[in-house]
Structure prediction request, 337 residues.
Amino acid sequence: MAIRTATLSNKQKAAMLLVALGPDSSGKILETLTQDEVEALTLEIARMGKVNSETREVIIEEFYNLCVAQDFIAEGGVEAAREALAAAFGDDRADAIVGRVLQALQVMPFDFVKRADASQIVAFIQNEHPQTIALILAYLSSAQAANILQSLPGEIRADVAQRIATLDKTPPEVIREVERVLERKLSAVVEQDFSHAGGVKSLVDVLNYVDRSTEKTILESLAETAPEIAEAVKKLMFVFEDITLLDDRAIQLVLKEVDAKELGIALKGVGENVQLRIYKNMSERAAAMLKEDMEYMGPVRLRTVEDAQQRIVNIIRKLEESGEITVARGGGEEMIV
Prediction:
């Protein structure tokens, strides 16, 4: 009686396939795997009982179908692969094969968009609902999403930004539908099972790559329409450790605005590289006094340290907003005006 392959794990199927391929081919495959994977498959082979010819043929056919589907996806996209497989095996089986391939490849939703030019994407999506645009941008790299966001019409940028920050888990059927709409426009589409993207951190990553004007416009609008999101974004836009990214003159200007005691508390929670950068921009006497104060300070609550760091970050942002210092976006150099 044939083993019901639906009850077998992927590891068991892989082990049976290796046995069916023979030692030469299996040996070449095992050479490409990690030690843990080799050990797991070896254990499955050791546990394996007799596999009849019918089961063996089913597993080989399944493996072949998966390989064919993967090639179709690489060449023509998911929809092309599904259509070709549906013609050969029917819709249900085609969906099952494509689904397994996508899960194995860990293809992210909207992966096809990553290969498209930002200006082309903007042309296709700028008239979509802001929620749809936010969903798409949430799955792209921060740099690509930033290019698209700042190219969108000014009247919808902040709305899209707010929706990125408030995105939660999106049902897979919604993602598929949006992908299918874009597929008709961009001719390639990729999908995956349930996924999670968006949130304040996602929006911050995007804003870190947009130009200062776009960032300022979005934050000002968010401050009016969703002040809690605007505040959360501001707190994540520049963390205390990023002070090392400023040039020496900018750091010196910041230190003039900071209370020495608060600076000591803030430095209790950072690495030596940050402390040394601060000491470098102080006089020897001031640095010595700060170190002494920190030694006598003793243990400090983490919340107290974080609050002190955030107050200093707020000073940095205030100086930036007033134009006294400039923090370049997108990984550029920081400079003082």
Observations:
- The longest strand covers residues 169-170.
- Residues 53-76 form the longest helix (24 residues).
